[in-house]
Records
---
Amino acid sequence: TVTKVVVEMPSFKVSLLDYGAGNVRSVRNAIAANGYEIEDITTPEQIDEAKVIVFPGVGSFGSAMRVLKEKGFDGPLRKYLSDHKRPFLGICLGMQTLFESSDEHEEGQDAIPGLGVIPGKVVRFDSTKMTVPHIGWNGRILHKESPVLKHVSPLEEAYYVHSYYAPITEENKEWILSSTTYSGEHFISAVQRGAVVATQFHPEKSGSTGLRVLKGFLEAIENGTLEQTENLAVDPQAKTELVKRIVVALDVRSNDHGDLVVTKGDQYDVRENHKEGVESGRGGVRNLGKPVALARRYYEEGTDEIAFLNITSFRQGVIEDMPMLQVLEEASKNIFVPLTVGGGIRSYSDPATGQTWSALEVASRYFRAGADKVSLGSDAVQASEEFIASGGKKSGGTSIEMISNVYGVQAVVVSIDPKRVYVNSREDAAAEHVVVELENGQEGPNGEKLCWFQCTVKGGREARNICAVTVAKTTEKLGAGEIMLNCIDMDGQGNGYDIALMRAVSDAVTIPVIASSGAGTPEHFTDVFSKTNVKAALAAGMFHRKEVEIEAVKAHIRDHGMPARSSY
């Protein structure tokens, strides 16, 4: 006898409100991973016809509301949401647009009106009191029981990335599904009233936890239980904590045979040398694996974030760089943590055709392929030099400004590649350079204790007369949302992060800093987190070579009294 297995198909398709900003590919993939088909909303009429709407807002509040109005979506969306009976899931900015207004506007301008479904105004975190944006994995304090969270433990962290938040007020209390605390600020992290649900966190970037949030939402629509919530008693003293992020970097480039591989530099040299047995001549490009397969492995092992750093020399530009775009597209199919991509993101012209692409257009290509953040290197140093030369005036035309104005500051990472310049005294360096005292055990080769950190461009091949602290501060003013801080001297050495550099930069800016270059043991992570203000630490070679497991690093961090995300 043959037993027939009947697979129950979903009774509806998910209508996706993709207004054209940022990475919604991951949302599509997360919905597909739960077994549902997607229909794109392209006309206002489709909003009224929809069975369920998912609105993944990415970018700035003003640009989102402007596009909704231009497309004629705002009126039908308000009507769809008016009685709270029709299933809706807003994500991040998709939640914020439900409020009456937002302060995310140019200085001196009026608050921007929202959809006005929930009472209250979205406001900015105070950067004098905390690092802004709020980027990383944080917890949730439950205010209601909901079928949306049926498959998720209250202890599981979710991924946040935002500079603005919705404060809790008497008028919006009945909407609150969960709240979260960040550096003393208590804000709304999820809402639900009837069938209208929205989250400040990103389910599609919250790993297995986020996939199960989506599962709970879609399953509850399927079985008719979505509106069955129950209020919970909330401890007014309850707090959540932003965890220390572990980021894995994959340096990707073509090897001598034209294959795209993950490699690793030794003070930025990616070719094998005497350490690998090369006695003479030029060694081959170190091949540590295929990018998508390695990224998937790190996702399964619990990395909090993945950075693809394209270190190929671009002759024609990233628009023609189909292999890297394909890497992102493939990776985002089954990797549900944040993906950063760097390399070649700049304005350029094709000499053969004369066609010009802006850095914004290049970044947009990467976002649509699955990137959540783009990393800018040489372009950021040039922008800093121009900003200083202009007396601190923004031109509006730098890569940082163009991308952050459309996608939000949280989408722009500036990668700084400095090297040490040793000095005998602080007076030996030019007045504009910040001289730091090196950590005990991290002195120069001749015992030098003082240095400034000179920025380089073109993959470390060209030094510029500007220091790392200055570039970090100026790029923050231009609209960067995060700093990835490398150190050529420490790269690939496995002797720990440059503590003096990490401390100097993380103390000088109010945006998050990711420590990079030099990790070789779990102690190096604990060291940089305990001695500096960095919010994340990145490593590559030690993970690629399986010398240390990601969970061993997190266990060491927890053992030293600091929070790290658990894999569920």
---
Amino acid sequence: MCVCVCVFGRETLNGPFPIVTHTQIDTGSIALDSSHTGNLIAAFENSDGLFGFVNDIAILKTGIAPTPVQFLEGEVEGVSVGINTEGFSGIVAFTTSSKGGSTCDLQVIQWIGGFEDVWTVDSFAVESKEACKVKTMKVVVADDGRSALITFAYEYEGGHGRVVAYSVTPASKTSTKDVLCCNQASSSFALADMTHFSVSSTGTISTIAYIATSSDLSHNTLVTEYYEGTDRRTPIEFELQGSAEEIASAIHPNSKNVVFVGSTGTQATVYEVESQSRLESQLVYTAPQGWVIHHPSIDFSGDGSTFDLSWRVVLQIRNLTSQRVVSCQSSGACEVVWEQSPNDVYVSAQAGPLTSIFFSKDVDNNSGRAASLYGVFSFSSHLSALNPFAVLPSSKSSPLCGINVQAASQANTASSIVAYIGTPCNAMGGATLPVSTLYFAYVINEEETGYSCSPQLQCVKNTSSPFPNEGSCASGCFGPSFQNGYTCTTNGQCVASNSAQFPTMEFCSDVCYAIPTASNTLSGGSVFLLVLIFGCIFPYLIIGMSYNIFVKKAQGTEIFPNHDFWFSTLPHNIRAGFRCVIGRRRAGDQYESI
């Protein structure tokens, strides 16, 4: 089995680099922070137990392999990871099965410069051991790094789904559990499939979206759970027309606006929520006859301002002979961005102005083999001219079976990350020895002249920048805000602030540096003249004149300090010097040559 991690930008691929090799990697989860530090947290399980690492992408892209830490031995069912926006606090959450498969244990490991001890958060009953895999599990780490929200849906009784949220504080080993849906007395149940479950977050705000179905199967409801920090707010509900098969969500980075896209198979509808108030729903796309919608994703695509709430939907449509990727804007305009062969693996990730799409090609429908993996990275303005490039080069002699792809985007540095898991196949299409390799490849968008996001969360114009223009930079250049903490100033100093980027001086100083000054700054001579004028001449005049006026009672020009020198001695000496020089020149004109 092969597990690969790649970060993408415009079209330049560095790698892939082999990071670590293990046997039988069954589960992988990758999270990338949206900060300037670029820390990557990864966790995976194999036949020996659970492993993970945290490393800087700048180091990984050079091919220097990290050393994974083994958290525990034995079988692990499911795993998910998360890291806060500034990249200094991470969480590995995983589940193990006990009591013959009837009980599932949720456990947590925190990373703050190093991995802490394993902590068991809760034990809960499940329908089967398979239900303990909780493939829907999402981890959202708070900006201050002190707490996290862990959410997932699972089968707990008769195949019915339950949605839960845990607010955990690893330092004190305390947690609060909320059963969001649905209790035995409830007239509805949740669909535990991962396509019916979505989590999005920004700052201290998290939203959990899921589909609840009535017990008589007569109607479906899109439920939006809203968390501010660890405080749960009143949920918002949308009655769905028909049965929604897939949903996705996004939350605006500078406001409490949330958008959802739900697919019913042939139609995609966007639902909007503002500060816990239900707004409206909008039908954005209807598939042509014979086509079916898959893998919808949604994100805000505006300039990053609080008032620009433009969103973008990317979805896949398929029929029996073809596959297309469609992009739709909040204005209602939709376009087909490209068309590929059917049965391709497909996943997309969006963050700010970025869209990442990954798929496999050369698929053998009979054996399930995939010979290659491709990726596309683009800004929203360039979606009509996508240019796929190979992530995993085509190799029909050693194809992969059962490729599983995960993807995420990093807004601040205009890059994306993809993790893919696959098992090598032999000539008959069966699996060979399950030896797995974790690969990492790095690609970042690079413009000859453009904008980059500074540690002060300002768009700075310079060469070799990730953003092509100020608008795309503004939509990706955002970060957390703490009531009491430290802010990185333009000259690279960490100062205390009521609305800060970092919770402590230590975290601020690790990434804070000065913004380069523009080319029209003052020269050394200009600085000397300013110091001479304002540091010497002005004080000399003010102090001297004040003394003459108030002490000597001087008037007129006599108020100037050293009046006789400036108004008599100095002018007389200057006139005498001129007469001397001019007189010598005139005398020289009367000399005769010998």
---
Amino acid sequence: MPSYQNAQEAETLLEAAPLTPGKSASLNEPSSSTRKFAGMAIAATALIAGVAGVTHATGKTAPAAALSEEIKSDWMNPIVENPTVHESSTGWYFYKSATIARTGTVDVVADFMARHTGGSACDAVNLGCDGYKITCVYGADSDVDDSTTSMMWDRQLHYVHAPKLHSHAVDGDDMGTDGWMDFMEESYDGMSEFNGFMHNKFTMFTGDIEAKAVELQNDNHKTMKRLSVYHEGGYSASITVSLKGYIWEFVGFAPDACANPEAADCSYALWSEDECPAAHTVDVNMTALTGMIAREQERKQAGDQFGTGYANSSMWISNSIASSNIFSDEMTLNFDLLKNRTQAQVRYSGGTESAGSPTCNVATIAYANMNQEYSGQDDHVTLKYVTNWKQQNATSKRTEKTYSITDYETYIARVHKKYLTRPHSGNPDDMWRNWDHFLDQHIGIKWYRDTPSDMCYNHNQDITSMLKDHHISCGKRAVDGDGDHFYTATPASTMSLEYNTECNYGAMGETNICTCNAENSNELAFFKNETDQNGSIDDDELVATTTTSTRLQGGEAECNADADETYLWVLTVLMGLMVR
């Protein structure tokens, strides 16, 4: 781990180096400054324990992460499974997505998600100091007969509200995350006309599209209603609605009135050529998904606590991201890394040879080598990057300002460069504990932890090596019991790709999240005494610096120190001594 060189570096606590393949965590020697701090922390612990009742935590040393040929052969050549067999099989899959909640919209967003999106276990989770993760679960179908297994429905959608996090490319500019969300909302003009920013969306399957239309209309939401040709015959219907700048699309079987899209009583219109029909196709088996939802209703009516089915009434099936050019060098690199490192399949559609979509191109990313028990058989989530050549610009109806998809990508890249490359030492190992608010706009790709455990550590370090080798900035966060999360400054993408390895492999200085400070670090919030009165940290972990891995206890929402004032004072003094 690099030494703290000055007061600024000591204050930020952001220069803990990620381990690289082939290096055991036990070989990661602390620097002289770290030894000094560790010694002082240990010496002070007796005093602290007497005052605050502290007990010491023991860190775990991760195994060496050399990518052996034996292990590589397992995951580089996944076994093709019978899709009718519902059993565990290790693999990568999309497990969550998140976007940004404009400042002051927590209640509005939470209400919409709980009442309209069809999710279950909806909550606004306190992340500290007016920061919230507004979340619902949209689970996969799983044969369950106990409460533990029933909690393994692995689909999550979030909004992140975090007004303290960095998000401006230039200090004081009028954009940042709030400015961009406002611009997009204003450009939609009450969903009166399609524009390219509407390709940024969550797509949800619902069993009754007309009921969803009535529900949204009764709550005075402006919607856009469209039809797509369905691959099994007939049409799928789409209802799009904006929630504070980000699009939700609900899809399902088109109503009977739209068997002929030109019928007078059909209130849906086919996607136009300029709207890129290829970007809106529904690739899932809607019949199977309808059956999954129906089984849940039957289970509830029968009074069974557990069983096959869903707690939610809709399923997350896709995410889309507007792109200025899916064939750029940066996007080609993104697709190559996904294919080579996570075994993603990338399929292209649209273009001049595509019927109905000659002015757009779509890259659809999917995973077939899934852990089916946790990621689903029929509700595979896909990710679509969309370049709509006819819809590259949009204009705010309020300000009359026009911005392009390229402007949005460039702005986010500038924010990432400004905040994710500090301190400016030139050493990429010094830049993994930073953060900016645009990282909260991400889609998560999970490697499900499975046996042998070495396999997970190997993947963890393979992702580390990939990001370092290609100079991709990253905000890495560690969640105890939930693995390491690599939030990447994905080149030319307005949405970050987040890799979650479901295992922890880290160096001293690993941090969980906390929106009490701009760096989104609960360790830093603790040391700077920036936490509020809610939540707690297992404070013992913060002084266990003789180990090479610090694990912060509690979930990602528990960033706020509930420590005795004397304990805070002692740690503050120790930090001051370390700087001197």
---
Amino acid sequence: RQAVKTYLNEYIKVNCSSQLPMEIRRRLWECSDIREILEKFVLIFSRVRPHFSKRAFSEAARARVVGMKLYNVAVTLSWIGICVGAHNDDIPSSPQEFLFLDILDTHDPWGLIDAAANTVQEAQDLHAPADLDYEQGALVVGVLNSKDSAGVYEVYAVNGTGPEPLQTVTGGKPTLTVDVLRYETRDFVTYTAATVCLSFTSEGDPYPNTMATVKSIARNEATGQTLLAVFGNGINMYVSDDGGRSFRDTTNGTPNFDDKDDINVISANGVWVDMQITKQNWTLKYCDNLDSCDKRRVVSVRNSSDGITWSDDLGLRVPDENDPPELQFYRMRPFFVSGRLLAHTLLYAPAPWLGSAYGRQPRLCNKHNSTRCHGPHLYEEWWVGPVSGRPEDLQGWRRPYRRTPAAPQDVWLMAQPVTLSASSSQPKRIVFVGNGKVYSLPENRIGGLYAPANGEFSTPSFRMLPNGSAPALSINAEATWGAKLIGGGCDEGCAAYIFAEIVDATSGEVVKGFDRSRFHTLLNVSGTAMPLRWTANASAPRNTINAHGRIDVVPGTASALVRLRVYFRDATVYAVTVGSLELN
């Protein structure tokens, strides 16, 4: 009962703010989201009834009643237009992008539909800064959109990583000075000369175990403040107010906090969030380099309004029954793409003692000191952020792509991605810089939905144009065909198709003039912005605007609030874009 009350309060507090970015507002354009969640809440209680004791079920039953009351309140709110965007005449003026990262991003799915992800690929035409010695530990740790110039990207790198990883891997002399370097680029081909924005030194200490390791950099786009997270003698945060050109220490000699194994900051909803790795008490089958046999690495989180004073841990996210029993989360890197919160998390598992030639840090591993053995990492895994859009909601993070590596083998994607505009030879794409190379994927193609046979789903709702016609619609999808039969014709290789219709958001009835029989079916195609078209029907009735600025529904047609119903087979659908609502 309290959980539902809290959710409703949070929903209204967060989502009824006019300051919300359009990318978040468009997912909350109507109040049907909360209706659907409360409907599920009621359904859950009806299903779990046999598992409750009589006393416990009485509590559950009362909670169910509260849920029904709140459901009715939510319906009423949507009717009278209290929530953001619930007004019929509140129409967005910019394109809306609906990304389909897993089945939770759809409405009313049918058929077998799997979440499908892609692994980033090396971009042969793009390059990392060439003056860094990556073989000796240089590393790109952050890429940000310029605070001052549109179309410019700021690239931050370190010329060495202190004692890690080279000292413990090769036994070579550790770096005694670490410089944080700042570059600018427009195309990830040519870069400005590096400038030093921060330096750390440990001269005189031959093995500087407290030497700084720069972990991440992030920016609050609203304030322009830039935060640099450093792992050394504790966790230290450095702040820049001049676009990352210089940083100041916020610690006054005392670490901001000191109990984490890895850190990564991100700015979300006006708050700094640290998606960090912490140690949880856990009995290990194989010991590793945590100096014990009874701790494992898991994800925790804390937040801060100023980047200086941080909350306590806000919970843990641990491996589950679908993971290997010894799995650990080694590093988590959250980021935003097209307004959606995602992350890639490095998976790890300890290993038994197998000799001096095996493992991540073989010099420190021997059969007499098994707690120093560092097993190999597994791979990076894509995670999808909570529906709430809040990184702190640890249990809301989804893991739909468990067996698909986010990156090629041994590629560290320490820096967050940015979106690189299309060029004459390349489409718009997502760009990651790491390991001395640049990696990319086509726009919004980290993950999508794949149907091996016939599948269908509806998008979130959007509005028809005032004259009753549809706004410009395009789809990001892969529906290509393979080889034909050796004797002629085509069978398994030519199964892919996509077609669509527009349906009423409430009733599901097809809007006249936009049924699938009029749709120009997509066969053997792939593209990030393929137009969706229907054959014109001049006789189809249209909705009209009345004297009060509201949309009158012509009898027999759908209301102004609609969804796109997508039908597909042997194809992957990544996103649908609803164009700007201009009459064109």
